[in-house]
């Protein structure tokens, strides 16, 4: 068992089982220790968290994984003095919720289980609803009077807690980014970006302070504002904060006035509040999910508009715009810039000899070769046909020429296989133009300078680098020749 490795996730199976057992054990203890005496827990997080884990990590959902989870829950109950038969039955109810919710969510493709579409939220709602219904039904089959309540009260108490807890917790775990993405998220927000959060906090304070049946609706406008401004994962955290705050506040206020004579009224009010809060958070979640879909679509449209469909590099319009912005920054920061114009030698002959399909593959392969050699802040785009351009910030003439020569040699020695097994060699000609720190010229002038250098490289036999340098006025000196 120790030697077995999960091929998909690279984790030993034993480590997966230990993780499941500890999570089930510790989360069950958390729910038990926060449970009022003689009542169900205010929050029972273990079911929602483990369901989210199994959906995020399907490799954990093995028969042995399910059994280990069940044993972890039972161990927690036994540790706190629960009788074994009752512990087995109650945790079988918990497992039924996880299994039912897992089965419902499996109806969605795995790519859509991360809350990226409103449809996923509706499935999550159905999974939480059906799972809570199954678990609460099983809970009353063994004992008609759980914690001295009537059957219907016991059923509703279990159902309302599990349904609301799942709707609050499960979206967080399904929408959570991976650890690397989470660490890259900005921490310092500008004041304007924090206004929706401040509005939500103030609305929560007012809802707790004022109280009453309408208080649970106070945070809704602020939550909707957050849904419009923030990422989906952030919204799930805020809905969790809102729901837990309101349920805890209502429960605390009710406990102050609870007596044996009004116990049922206490439960009825708490159950109603749980269900109402669970329903209220659905609106902001669906709105945030819809906006996330629209943002993703807009990014795709923007990428299509700004990038060449064949090579994936910047299109001419986007390259021109970004290069102009870079020049404006250069004038303010007094930094040097260099521009490389690149032309694939005898490209028309390649099209005529091998066909346009091969020619397109040559363009894509060339762009891939060059892109691997550039930094993220260096602009690379296609001007049209077989002509490309690279804009280098903070690059003196010698640095621009050095990169151009490196690319020329790399392309020359690289075998391309655009049509199959037969290798194809290509070469490039490069014209380099640079602006020193104090030079001020337009992008059009810089392009003309690089074009003159490129023309010289092609007229001198191709497969070479030529550099243009302004010495004085309009005079030109050829300073690099290879």
TrEMBL record:
GO terms for cellular component: plasma membrane. Residues 335-470 form the GGDEF domain. NCBIfam families: GGDEF. GO terms for molecular function: diguanylate cyclase activity. GO terms for biological process: cell adhesion involved in single-species biofilm formation; negative regulation of bacterial-type flagellum-dependent cell motility. This is diguanylate cyclase. It comes from Serratia inhibens. PANTHER family: DIGUANYLATE CYCLASE DGCM-RELATED (PTHR45138:SF9), REGULATORY COMPONENTS OF SENSORY TRANSDUCTION SYSTEM (PTHR45138). InterPro entries: Diguanylate_Cyclase, GGDEF_dom, Nucleotide_cyclase, Rev_trsase/Diguanyl_cyclase. It is an enzyme of class 2 (transferase). CDD domains: GGDEF (cd01949). Pfam families: GGDEF. Pathway: Purine metabolism; 3',5'-cyclic di-GMP biosynthesis. It catalyses: 2 GTP = 3',3'-c-di-GMP + 2 diphosphate.
